[in-house]
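Case study 2.
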Amino acid sequence: MNWKILPILIATTITISGCSLLTPKATPVEIKTVPVKINIAQPTLPRGLDLKEPKWYVVSERVIPNPCKRPAEDQPRDCALGKENDWPEGYTYFDRFQDQIKKVHGGDLVFFAMSVGDYELMAYNMQELRRYIREMQEVVVYYETVTKPEEPNGQ
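Prediction:
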């Protein structure tokens, strides 16, 4: 064999092998799946409803009884003493209602009327509104629970 070619063959062998004879063995790669916590902004709960209670008037045309005055609590009424109120004969609840409203509001009187069927419809609509609000609150609470960061054990 030609001794001049031997160094060239050794150099070529080392170059081709990429110095793999001199490096340690490769370690296996570990693959880990780790959940990444996402910082989700918590929605604020909706402000509570502040519903005001309306005042309803029920007015009829029935005549108001104007009872006689009583001399004492345990004695019967005596019309000779007069009447308890100065209502004219045939004065109705409707007349009294008109007088009271005109006195309180400076003579202005406006009526708003509603049929029984429309009132039932209004009650149904209010129930639907309550149902919708409750369901929306449940959705908000659900998302708050799901996206709330987990607290460490023992706290």
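The CA atoms of residues 72 and 94 lie 30 Å apart.
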